[in-house]
Amino acid sequence: MPSVVNLEDCFSRFSDTYSPKIVGELNGQQVLVVRLEGDKVPWHTHDSEDELFWVLEGSLDVLERERQVTLNAGEFYIV
Asked: Do β-strands 76-78 and 52-54 pair in parallel, antiparallel, or remain unpaired?
C-alpha cells in the first residue's frame, strides 16, 4: 500500500550518526536515511545495488577510487 514519507519527520525521530534507518521499500530494496557528521562514514561498497546520496542540509564529499564528488543541500548523486 502506498504511503507518504516525510523526511523531516523521519530525521526528527533520531539524532545518532551513521545509524541508517529504514523508511520504505522499493522493488525489493530498502530505502534508508542516515544522519552524517564530518568524516565518520567508513569507505564501503555494494556489490549488488547502487547507492543514492541526497543532501538535505550542509554538504557531503563522496570519495570514489578515482575522484571526489561534492554535494550541497538539495543535490543528490547515484553511485
From this structure: antiparallel
